[in-house]
Amino acid sequence: MAKKLYNDPSPLETRILSARFGLENSESLTTYLAHDGFKAFRKAREMKPEQIIEEVKTSALRGRGGAGFPTGLKWSFVPRSSPKPKYIVINADESEPGTCKDRLLMEYDPHQMIEGILIAGLALDAHKGYLYIRGEYRYLIDHMDRAIAEAYAQGYLGKNILGTGFDFDLYTHSGAGAYECGEETALLDSLEGKRGIPRMKPPFPAVAGAWASPTLLNNVETFSAIPAIIRDGGAAFAALGTPKNGGTRLLCVSGHVNKPGVYEVPLGYPMLNFIEEIAGGIPGGKKLKAVIPGGSSCPILKADECDIPMDYDSLAKIGSMLGSGGMVVMDETTDMVKVALRIMRFYAHESCGWCIPCREGTTWLRKILQRFDDGGGRHEDVALLGELSKNMLGRTFCALGDAAAMPTISIVDKFADDFEKRLARDRQMVAV
Amino acid sequence: MAELVNLTINGQAVQAEKGTLLIEVARQNGIEIPAFCYYPGLTLQAACRMCLVEVEKTPKLQVGCTLPVADGMVVHTESDTVRQSRKGMIEFLLTNHPLDCPVCDKGGECELQDMTFRYGAGESRFTERKVHVDEQQWSPVVYFDAPRCILCYRCVRVCNEGIGVGALGVSNRGVISEIVPNRHDYLECDECGACIDICPVGALTSGSYRYQTRPWEMTHVGTICTHCGDGCRTTLGVRDDKIMRGNNRDSSGINGDFLCIKGRYAFDFVEHPERLQSPMLRNAAGEFEPISWSRAFATIAETFTAVKARGGKFGVVGSNHTTNEENYFLQKFARQGLGTKNIDHHRTGDLATFFDALSGKNAALATAGDLYTAKAVLVVGADLAQQHPLLSYQARANFRHHNAHIYAVTTGPVREDNQAIASVRVAAGGELAGVESLRDKLKAEGDLVIVFGDSIQGDGLRKLIAFGDSLGIPVKYVCLVDYSNSRGAFDMGLIPRDGGMSIQQMLAAKDLDVLWVVGANPLKNAALDSTNAFVIVQDLFMTETANHAHLVLPAASVYEKNGTVTNVCGEVQKLKQAVKVMGTKTDLEIMGSIAKEMNLNLGIWLPDKVFAEIRKTVHGYDVSLPVVDTGGAAPTMPLNGRVPALPGAIQSAGDTLFTSGSMSRYSKILNAVIESPGGLYGGKEPEVSAQSPTASGQMPGGTVQS
After folding, report:
1. Phi-psi region of B682 (alpha: psi -120 to 50; beta: other; left: phi over 0)
2. Optimal mutation site among B173, B176, B180, B201, interface A, most CBs of chain A within 10 A
């Protein structure tokens, strides 16, 4: 039975990772095998580990979780010769607001990711993998358990996979509802059964990760890209994108667009074209006001900043990030005070509380924004919001503090008018 | 020698060992990098962000408490950016802090106050509603006021890492993160109060101290805890001749940061209403009536002189809580003044065999510090966490900081099991076989400290030492004894040598004429067979023995006197008088006065004078005076000559963490902890003693003499 997709695909997409989305029984191993499944694994097992890593480097694949770290480089950091067991951990704690691609990759094509994991196992001499799925994706844990059982049953997981002598076990692990556990070291603590708080780095997980052993952590989408890279070659994948930004990405577009959804496009795809042509433009012919390009942690872009190609480096150049691919489009009617409040409510709720500036700062900012939104704003609050955010930025233990500070700083800087308008309205109401 | 690196801090050229943490290097050079969560000896957190400093060529501020120094590093700890950052952190911290400093116990010695004063802003920009949580009581001694908490996690770490209990954790997240006890709303733990002491703010407060005084109203008297034999320094906060609290605020003793519940709280027996405050003589009707000190001295002098003159039989029982000076004076009094060899104390470890077997090998005596530095520690037949918490703490710290190998050969589970590389469970009496089974492992160690309890005595003790000798590695020993001056009592000669009678023999002698008991309770579980013996007791309370006496003298406790004590490892430390209890006299003054009354010339009975004599005459006690005088621990060297076997029994009192012989009956805190839920954490259940004769109501607690 063909699974109904959450959104209709666009003809303008370049469907590599999502090639099998919408096929009948796309989540089954049988379908996967009928459509290029495990070709890459068969190829990889003939390759030397260094060749696999080299191929990934050539592909210019960058981590799809948000930070955009070159994947091949990350793989090369894991000491293959370590006497300790090496672990592969798949970050499926997809929690960045606006992001909903990993669930589709798992829901529609779980075996593509499993194949990617197995290839990483070959490259790193790792034999155990943990799929850390956010607790809210309860149905996906069952779904993945079924997929894993199917792979075991047909010899694609477990002992002596496909007669290669290579063993690999894969387990699902449920998160418990903490955004913080998407941070790789907090995820590892959580995986080990501890309270999910970030760890000090160094040591980095590549050296001492899960159970103090060398650990490779990558996002679902990153692993899902591996089969295509190995199958068709790193160069082919790289060529899809822009220099140093290889391949395609699944972008999740929401907000004021006619066709919200997840679309796969090559890196470097022009943002305005994406909004207009793929996402169907803004409803009611309204004007674009702002875009959160890659999840709520990213500094917000004003409409006049949006005429850029969407790749890691172009967005970094204008002070934002491609992040996790969660794009939120806002039209001219959007009240940025409400946007800032909504974002900060999230971060105040999700701050793990470990370090002072994030724990206290996010809640303070939320309270100011709430009061502002409730009509109790003061002129000095606008500057205070910016200053407090700057007191957090770069000074917190992990990136969550930055993730809360950056959008706030950008909103206050770029949309000060919205705050002033509110103050004027509040004054009018008092006058009446 | 580790590699040295050169760096610059605030323009000052500094040299340091490579890899040292920047915050430590700064401190060594007189530069303060402020921090809440950083605490030497505990794991790093990097949570409070107060120690952020500027390091040239790095884009962001760097965390001073986790940053190892490297060659060529240029650090600024007082730049505008750094100051601004600290100001921001303090501002964040104070947003939800109640600022109830005027009534907070910590006011005046609060790190948050100090930091705010130094680095904070003049006024707060926070105008929102603060998060409030009601105060909670977690145990008789631990209260928690969450809003004051700054979440530095020091308490969590000291409990988990330092004490080895792990009774504290964190619940919730974000701004409502909160420290929580292990039993949801109460604590099951050692009740040591380390969490309270280490708390930089007033979030964790002490059940006995809270809302009692302002810190600056107290004088602080550093003395030695009078309970177990470990010899921890406790600093008593005294106001108006009342001990308000005990802690280790200056970390100056051998215990550094450590104190157990007894050292921190069990000073309250001092002001127990049942303290004896007047000499009492049994009248014709057999009832006690108060008499004057002069009449008491005259009566004793008269009795002693008469019994001595007719060649009667004396029995003298000393204490393992009284000072070296008192013990020395008592045995001198007995031997020279009364002409008797019948002198003993409650012996809790076989020191006689121990000293004899190790004769001439002073280097084989371990100090409390050795347990922290040895490559390996072997615990035989002892539950250190219960009976010698400092030694347990030291071994644990050694494990954490130096990866020391800990071995345990015990009859039951002990806390050392958690660190042990090998734990051997044996039936009682099987300890030596258990030790033997570790031979190959121990041989491979660099050096070893063997700590053993009272199950190792006599031949067994000689065998243990022969075993140690056969390992071919340097081995040191600790022979465990129970109380604060058990070791000193032995060293000073409160022992039935040269044919004297042991306690058991004294009690069994039907012709005993005088039983003189100084600070001990031999009749707790035994009877006095002589019906004619005149019994004199010097004690703090109406013990079973005192109740049997003809004459009872109210003695001062250790917290009310000067002098020295010797801990379980043979280290001499100085006591300092904290308070005075009306009507009491120190045992030294009592004995001196009796001697004077008898016209005996036993020398001046001032602690310093007696200590001078001890240094001259007692084997191994010619210790460094400056070390002792400045509050240090001076190791004694008693191993020089054969020690003959002594008659009488040797048995540990088997106290737990929450009992301390008969003294613990009079500590409200210890009793409260025992009765509270969770109070019997991980220990043997103390028997509930029979109602003490003069006590009103049931008194749980110690079951043994001391």
Report:
1. left
2. B173
